[in-house]
Each structure stands twice: as structure tokens, then as C-alpha cells.
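We were asked to recover a plausible sequence for a given structure. The inputs and outputs are reproduced exactly as logged, with field labels preserved.

PROBLEM: sequence recovery
POSITIONS: 151
GIVEN STRUCTURE:
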């Protein structure tokens, strides 16, 4: 691959994929933590334990890996010609839109974990369980766009 990354292209791509895996691991587990945390709100000891778990997950895995995904992903996208408006990058624009939406979901989940830590449950358990599935749907679509590049 040519572009400003040169021979580093494959290394940057590999690192991007590794951090995507870390981010998705965090996004798959945090919503499940939220369900358990919300159900434990009646028990202050359990609620605090879930709040601590969520805080560790956010600070050690979720937020650092999401930042690296964005940094490396933007470097790859720029290397592909994103800023030059090159033809044939419709798949990349769609992928970026989905990553923006997934980042928004990440922000919502982090915010909701902080609300739960303050004892405020604003989403019913059924809806919270349904929201657990969003990261899987998003990542499936993102992978299809990145691999198949349908447009």
C-alpha cells in the first residue's frame, strides 16, 4: 500500500484490528455489567462492586482502545485518500458513519454506568438487555463494509 504510511501500512492495520478487538470486548461486556449493576441497586455493597468493575473496564480497556481505534483508523483512512475525495470510498464513508454511531453508543453506555453508580436507573431492564445487542450488529456491518467494500 502506498501513501504516507508506506511500509508501515500493514503494521498500522494490524494494530487497528487488535484495538478494535479490545474495544469490542469492552463494548460486549459493559452493557451486561449495566444489567447486573441495575439489578443490584437495592444492595449497596453489590452496586458499589459493579460500579468499581465498570470504572476499571472503562479506564483500562474501553476508552484507551477506542482512542487507539480512532487514531489508527483515521491514519488508515487518510492513507486511502479520505481527505482527497477519491472515488470508490463509499464503503469507507459508511463505515465511518457506523463507527461514529458506535462511539456514540459507547458514550451512552459510559454515561449510563456513571448514572447507575449514582443510583439513577432510567432505562428499564428489558430495554437495557435489548441495547446489549447493538454493538454486535454494528461490528458485523462494519466488518462487512471493510472486507467486502460493496460500494
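RECOVERED SEQUENCE:
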Amino acid at each position: 500500500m502506498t501513501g504516507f504510511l508506506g511500509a508501515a501500512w500493514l503494521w498500522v492495520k494490524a494494530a487497528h484490528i487488535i484495538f478494535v478487538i479490545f474495544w469490542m470486548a469492552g463494548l460486549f461486556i459493559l452493557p451486561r455489567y449495566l444489567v447486573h449493576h441495575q439489578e443490584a441497586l437495592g444492595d449497596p455493597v453489590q452496586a458499589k462492586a459493579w460500579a468499581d468493575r465498570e470504572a476499571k473496564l472503562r479506564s483500562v480497556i474501553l476508552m484507551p482502545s477506542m482512542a487507539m481505534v480512532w487514531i489508527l483508523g483515521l491514519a488508515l483512512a487518510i492513507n486511502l485518500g479520505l481527505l482527497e475525495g477519491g472515488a470508490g470510498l463509499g464503503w469507507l464513508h459508511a463505515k465511518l458513519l457506523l463507527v461514529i454511531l458506535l462511539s456514540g453508543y459507547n458514550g451512552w453506555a459510559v454515561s449510563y454506568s456513571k448514572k447507575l453508580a449514582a443510583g439513577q436507573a432510567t432505562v428499564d431492564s428489558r430495554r437495557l438487555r435489548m441495547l446489549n445487542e447493538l454493538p454486535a450488529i454494528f461490528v458485523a456491518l462494519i466488518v462487512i463494509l471493510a472486507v467486502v467494500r460493496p460500494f
